[in-house]
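Lecture 7, part 2: worked example. A protein chain together with tryptophan.
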Amino acid sequence: MAQTEYIVIRAQEDGVNVIGLTRGNDTKFHHTEKLDKGEVMIAQFTEHTSAMKIRGKAEIHSAHGVVESEPKK
Ligand code: TRP
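Predicted complex, written out as structure tokens:
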């Protein structure tokens, strides 16, 4: 069951990747979504998704506040 909480990811550059990782014994990538600058993805943690990895420069809004990911230098 999906949680009621949503995570909002706003890309601040082209080519930001939002990667969903599986829940359970092994933690693997199961989905990659590519966002271009200004694009927003609204996502939940589900029975299939236990973690998300954000690659690239983005703003991540959640119940924990806003954090910024930074591009690799
Ligand atoms: N099929 C995935 C799921 O139900 C879709 C998904 C939910 C997802 N949250 C995500 C994919 C976060 C990537 C990142 O779990």
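The radius of gyration is 12 Å. Residues 18 and 54 are 5 Å apart (CA to CA). Keep this in mind for problem set question 3.
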